[in-house]
Specification:
The chain has nine helices and no strands. The protein has about 200 residues and is mainly α. Mean pLDDT is about 90; it is low at about 1-15.
Length: about 200
């Protein structure tokens, strides 16, 4: 006996399907923004990659700007969770961990999906007087620098704050150099510099 499927009209999205659509949009936008750039990626490309409707994107994020902010928040959290976990797992004392940061970065630089820092990229793409993405980037950087500052203090360095900022600058420089050259070993150059200041 055959069964007949009765097609129903559109059903209200429940919280699970809304969350699923939100995640698909963020994942698709993250990949496209990081690979091709935010300004070069239109909304149509994002919704096609996510398999959602344009109305879903605007209902969920309000605008492309809202989507960009959500992508940066998600990318930042995922990266920080990974990075801080790797630092905590790195063997040795605080000095070893500070230098080991660059071993951790080299792993990231060697990944196929390494497209540089999404925050540096985003700030670089927009009006430098527009503080919207700078504030998100600063929030991300503050959390990362807090971890580095903790390690710097644990070394007993009398200029721990200065040491933390030196390491931070080496991190940013290594990320940009690795992106431009396509060479993950830029992390080793930064590691050598870090070893001299720690």
């Amino acid at each position: 006996m055959s069964t007949v499927t009765i097609e129903q009209g559109p059903q209200p999205e429940n919280s699970t399907s809304q969350q699923s659509a939100r995640n698909r949009l963020i994942n698709a936008a993250s990949d496209l923004f990081c690979r091709y750039g935010i300004n070069a990626t239109g909304i149509e490309a994002v919704i096609e990659a996510a398999g959602t409707a344009k109305a879903t994107l605007y209902k969920t994020f309000g605008s492309k700007e809202g989507l960009i902010e959500a992508v940066l928040e998600a990318e930042g959290k995922a990266w920080r969770d990974w990075f801080i976990h790797e630092i905590n797992s790195y063997p040795g004392d605080a000095k070893a961990k500070l230098i080991g940061i660059f071993d951790i970065l080299e792993i990231w630089f060697a990944k196929d999906r390494f497209f540089g820092c999404p925050f540096i990229n985003a700030v670089g793409e927009f009006d430098k007087k527009d503080t919207r993405y700078k504030e998100i980037a600063l929030s991300h950087k503050t959390i990362v620098m807090h971890k580095i500052a903790q390690l710097a203090q644990e070394t007993g360095d009398p200029d721990a704050n200065d040491l933390a900022h030196q390491i931070g600058l080496l991190i940013d420089g290594a990320i940009v150099a690795a992106l431009i050259t396509g060479n993950p070993q830029m992390a080793r150059v930064a590691r050598n510099a870090a070893a001299k200041v720690v």
